[in-house]
Design goal:
The protein has 13 helices and 17 strands. The chain is of the alpha/beta class.
Length: 401
């Protein structure tokens, strides 16, 4: 453990020991409570990134902490050779509050999306033949870092250096219904959509686009997969983002917020689809372990409590209104977009500089695509904390013009 080291010392040693895969900010976070985090030099920050939508109940939520302590003292891991009671409990909670009949647990969003595409191909070949294996996804999407999920990711920058990529993937633009109609056909096994694109710039799918996706999948016997790894589990003010549209998928993937900071992933499906998987078709060593499952149950119990999601919607509108005011004040042409506590604002080339200045002034936000702010505060953030964040952002805008 690197205790009592300064930020500079941690960074220096990290550059020697760790692979160079991240462009990290020059801070090392060591403690968190609610919406606040502290670095190794004891500087405090408002966290409007939350581990990229992971710590949705904030840092060190007392119920999550107590669950981890209790479960760590009982049982951490057994493998899926045996029944895991917490797995059953979490699956039942998810099923009771969704379209799904069956759940498979894994460790991450990338794993969940990989498994979802495997399930879709297995279902398609079992029911319709070997020709039906193609996956249609969207440009500017992001689905993971495995070879299949980065291929499904419609951003060429993630493909570079990993060619040849797996075959059978194509892309259409978000909300382009005409292109979608041209892409989905009798060879399509699945249509993979983020209801709100995260890494692509906080871009929501329209209700009309999702409805057409459902219609085309039904027409061509393809499966509709919603990737809710980032936008799911309370982030938008409903338990699942697609519930705002009324469009129901055949498969949905979750991760991030479901574990409250503990690694988790989930594939949810209807019984008709899930039956395509048989023993030996898919698996994981650590997925669905007792610790992650116990925390997942606690996260859902908090979010499903009376008034919780309604409070998220109210405070999210308060945040959006504040961002709209700042955008108008400084002549930002783009409008704030997104849903709930997943908001984006495109400001142009100065976005990375503004993000850096906000950090120096005690506010953590991040930038996607080089031009767009992404705001992902804890769902538990209070209005007074939103006011503090907006004041910092306003001050930085005023200084940078």
């Amino acid at each position: 453990m690197l205790e009592n080291l300064s930020t500079d010392e941690i960074i220096s040693r990290g550059k020697v020991a760790l692979m160079n895969t991240y462009n990290q900010f020059p801070i090392a976070l060591t403690k968190g409570e609610g919406v606040w985090v502290w670095d190794a030099d004891c500087k405090r920050y408002l966290d409007f990134v939350t581990g990229i939508a992971v710590n949705s109940l904030g840092h060190s939520h007392p119920k999550v902490v107590e669950t981890i302590r209790r479960q760590a003292g009982e049982l951490l891991h057994t493998s899926n050779l045996y029944w895991i009671p917490n797995q059953v409990a979490l699956a039942e909670l998810l099923i009771a509050n969704s379209f799904a009949d069956k759940v498979f647990f894994c460790n991450s969003g990338g794993e969940a999306n990989e498994g979802a595409m495997k399930l879709a191909r297995k279902y398609a070949k079992k029911n319709y033949g070997t020709h039906k294996y193609e996956v249609v996804s969207l440009t500017n999407s992001f689905h993971g870092r495995t070879l299949a999920t980065l291929t499904a990711t419609g951003q060429p920058k993630y493909h570079k250096g990993y060619e040849p990529l797996p075959a059978g993937f194509s892309y259409v633009a978000l909300n382009d219904i005409e292109a979608l109609q041209s892409a989905v056909n009798e060879n399509t096994a699945a249509l993979l959509i983020e209801p709100i694109q995260g890494e692509g710039g906080v871009n929501p799918a329209t209700e009309e686009f999702l409805q057409k996706a459902r219609e085309l999948c039904d027409r061509y016997h393809a499966l509709l997969i919603f990737d809710e790894v980032q936008c799911g589990v309370g982030r938008t003010g409903k338990l699942f983002s697609h519930q705002w549209s009324g469009v129901t998928p055949d498969i949905m993937t979750l991760a991030k917020a479901l574990g409250g900071g503990v690694s988790i992933g989930a594939i949810m499906a209807t019984a008709k689809v899930a039956v395509a998987f048989e023993p030996g078709d898919h698996g994981t060593t650590l997925g669905g372990n007792p610790l992650a499952m116990a925390v997942g149950c606690t996260v859902l119990e908090v979010m499903l409590a009376d008034g919780f999601l309604e409070g998220v919607v109210e405070r999210a509108e308060y945040l959006r209104h504040g961002l709209d005011q700042i955008a108008a004040k400084y002549g930002v042409e783009e409008k704030v977009r997104g849903q709930g506590m997943m908001l984006g604002l495109t400001v142009g080339e100065k976005a990375p500089q503004i993000v850096d200045e906000c950090r120096k002034n005690g506010l953590l936000i991040n930038c996607v695509g080089g031009k767009t702010f992404r705001f992902l505060p804890p769902l538990t953030v209070e209005k007074v904390e939103i006011d503090e964040a907006l004041a910092i952002l306003d001050d930085v805008f005023s200084k940078l013009g």
